[in-house]
Specification:
Elements: H1 3-6, H2 12-19, E1 23-27, E2 32-43, H3 63-66, E3 72-77, E4 80-87, E5 94-105, H4 107-113, H5 126-133, E6 150-152, E7 165-168, H6 178-181, E8 186-189
Antiparallel strand pairs: 1-2, 1-6, 2-5, 2-8, 3-4, 4-5, 7-8
Length: about 210
């Protein structure tokens, strides 16, 4: 299945859940770095008060959400950068935020990129993941996945399967918007230590994989 089909043939929530366990890699020209997606959040477009496109807001900063499914949307908050992929058809501005990966490939380089932070701190959050990849700008914003150094492996034979995928409210959504703040649109591998805010007492020895 190609990216255009994958990122537009079902609901954004279903896409987000299905991404759990899929390999995400980034090639900086010298190193391939990445791991298995263990946490992601769905953002449901113009009706979603937590989405950057809520109410139809559109600007150069969030244009990536309005492109066809499979387009990269990188945004910045303060000095931090975040990696999203647009879902649905052109002008239907929904997307998925990749929040965390369990690192597998290029770990040594990722540790260097993270100023020697390692263990779960290496990639257990969306800004940390981008730092681990050595990304400090929006260069690849608006690029289609297949025309970028990012790759999400859609082959089910290469996917890791979670014993349990849990859902929760998304992280950092304003509680002044209770309806959307409480919607369970965050998906994660139960017991995986690389999931952001995972309590140590919940860690599983197999990281939550089958």
């Amino acid at each position: 299945m190609n990216y255009s089909t994958y990122f537009s043939n079902k609901s954004t929530a279903a896409i987000t859940k299905d991404l759990i366990g899929r390999p995400l890699t980034y090639n900086d020209g010298q190193n391939i770095m990445g791991g298995y997606i263990v946490e992601a959040e769905a953002y449901l477009g113009v009706k979603d008060r937590a989405a950057h496109s809520y109410g139809g807001h559109r600007s150069p900063a969030n244009e990536g959400l309005y492109r066809k499914g499979g387009t990269i949307y990188i945004y910045a908050q303060r000095q931090y950068f975040f990696f999203d992929v647009a879902t649905q058809e052109y002008n239907e501005p929904q997307g998925v935020l990749i929040r965390a990966i369990e690192p597998v490939w290029g770990i040594e380089q990722m540790i260097k990129n993270r100023a020697d932070k390692n263990g779960v701190l290496l990639t257990n959050g969306p800004a940390k993941m981008m730092q681990a990849f050595g990304i400090h700008d929006k260069k690849w914003n608006l690029h289609f996945l297949s025309d970028s150094p990012f790759k999400i492996d859609l082959d089910d034979n290469h996917k890791k399967w979670a014993k349990e995928i849990k859902t929760s409210a998304r992280i950092g959504v304003s509680q002044s918007e209770l309806e959307w703040a409480n919607k369970e649109l965050r998906y994660y591998v139960a017991g995986n230590p690389y999931v952001s805010r995972m309590k140590k007492s919940a860690y599983q020895t197999d990281n939550g994989w089958q």
